[in-house]
Write a structure and sequence with these properties.
Strand content: 5-15%
Largest sheet: 7 strands, mixed
Number of strands: 7
Helix content: 40-55%
Shape: globular
Low-confidence stretches: none
Number of helices: 11
Bound molecules: flavin-adenine dinucleotide
Length: 423
């Protein structure tokens, strides 16, 4: 039998206790499934993949029978039909045990969340809706029946991923589909995904590139013209294997459209919380840094001598400060993920930026404080804390909502109403 930290009294309680946060029964059960899966399956494998910078493909294979690959596939298509919030809370539980798996899982799940619950919430014409409903079952079937894995490379190293320009990766319309060419950097799951959910600009001969013509296309990993290049030896999130993806005149049939023409642009502008989906992993890492500190100071970390350090007042104050920071982070983030919807108010959007910034910065601040508080022995590589520290460092670099961009928008959008200018 596989024992996990969940078998120890008082350890690794749900990050968001169902009663305290008034979660629904079905929602709580799904999140609990993720928590148990994380502790039982992800935690024991995380160190090895981090050390070797290899993709944890067996975690994804094990997610299939658990239903976790189809968590956001709508119920009528054989999925679990999780809402945006339910997904976020489940992902935080996975991030607690393996940041790299949770972050990669996010890329996969977004292909179903964006085409599922989020699209259902978007305004579409009757033709667009019919087209979308006719195309998406094929994508869901691959996931539900065969455990197919989708990824989501949109970063290109230019202004496009921040939403400031059209994607440089282009789709040229041809008979029956598109010829896709371009380059994506930091393509998590590169070499492991079955389909790359590519954001690219549809551009016919002589047309100007425009963000309005962004296409969201599933490019089969084995299509001629697709290649993965470059090394992968980063500071953190090493298991995501985010190498460079090249596409050269890749023929992609029209049936691989994940959203009808023009709908991605509408989603990005009217459902902005879709860009908050990178944060749950880091909410989990923040909780993990705190949990580790408490267990370590109590002398209860498995594999370490039962030395207690909790009697020193400096440690008690540090834990108290960590708790304050964690509670602040949880409260703001829970509010933001709970109020995600189409056409949110200005206040809700500003709160989402604040939540993203807070989670991404505080996860690393908590990990740094955990190392200082626990001491030198706690940052040896046989314990998870130093991995949590490195993994959490990368959160605030994630486009389109990096910590810097969140601050930039928060300041500007607070002080200026849309269209307002200074003379
Ligand atoms: C482990 C890991 C996994 C990743 N996985 C994926 C993935 O699966 N898919 C994917 O698409 N991307 C992924 N990324 C990429 C990530 O989202 C960023 O695109 C990437 O880290 C940015 O690289 P850069 O710092 O070179 O960007 P640059 O574009 O050079 O930006 C540097 C900084 O400048 C600021 N900046 C950039 N543009 C603007 C602007 N318009 N306005 C104001 N400030 C701006 C930002 O704060 C940014 O951090 C991953 C990154 C990491 C570290």
């Amino acid at each position: 039998m596989n024992h996990s930290v969940l078998d120890m009294p008082g350890r690794d309680a749900p990050i968001f206790a169902p009663e305290a946060f008034r979660l629904g029964e079905e929602e709580a059960a799904l999140i609990d499934k993720a928590r148990r899966f994380g502790a039982r399956v992800l935690a024991p494998r995380a160190a090895q993949h981090d050390r070797d910078a290899t993709f944890p493909i067996e975690n994804f294979r094990d997610m299939h029978p658990e239903g976790l690959l189809r968590i956001c596939v709508p119920k009528q298509h054989g999925g679990l039909g999780a809402s945006f919030r339910t997904y976020c809370l489940a992902a935080a539980e996975l991030g607690r045990y393996c940041g790299a798996t949770a972050l990669s899982w996010n890329m996969h799940v977004c292909s179903t969340l964006w085409t599922g619950a989020l699209s259902d919430d978007l305004e579409m014409s009757a033709e667009e809706r019919a087209e979308h409903n006719a195309r998406r079952p094929a994508h869901y079937r691959r996931i539900v029946e065969n455990g197919a894995i989708y990824s989501q490379p949109f970063s290109e190293g230019g202004a496009a991923a921040a939403g400031a320009a059209a994607f440089g990766t282009e789709a040229k319309p041809v008979d029956g589909g598109f010829l896709v060419s371009g380059k994506k950097i930091f393509a998590s799951l590169s070499g492991a995904a079955d389909y790359y959910g590519i954001l690219c600009t549809e551009r016919g001969e002589g047309e100007q590139a425009s963000r309005r013509n962004t296409l969201y296309l599933a490019v089969p990993a084995n299509a001629p013209g697709v290649s993965v290049v470059g090394d992968w030896d980063p500071l953190g999130m090493r298991g995501t294997v985010s190498r460079t993806l090249l596409m050269k005149d890749v023929f992609v049939p029209e049936s691989e459209l994940l959203m009808p023409h023009g709908v991605y642009f509408r989603a990005a502008t009217s459902w902005p919380h879709m860009f908050l989906t990178l944060s749950p992993t880091y909410m989990g890492l923040a909780q993990a840094a705190y949990d580790f500190t408490v267990a370590y100071l109590r002398g209860e970390v498995p594999g370490t001598p039962p030395v207690k350090r909790r009697m020193f007042p400096t440690k008690q104050i540090a834990v108290a400060e960590m708790r304050v920071m964690l509670e602040q982070t949880k409260a703001l983030w829970f509010q933001a993920v709970s109020e995600a919807r189409a056409n949110p108010t200005k206040e809700q959007v500003l709160r989402a930026y604040a939540a993203q910034h807070t989670v991404m910065e505080n996860a690393n601040a908590l990990a740094a404080k955990a190392i200082r508080t626990c001491g030198g022995q706690a940052m040896l590589k046989n314990l998870p804390l130093e991995r949590i520290y490195r993994d959490s460092r990368c959160g605030s670099l994630m486009l389109p909502w990096t910590a810097e961009i969140c601050l930039d928008r928060l300041g500007k959008e607070t002080l200026y109403e849309p269209g307002e200018k200074d003379e």
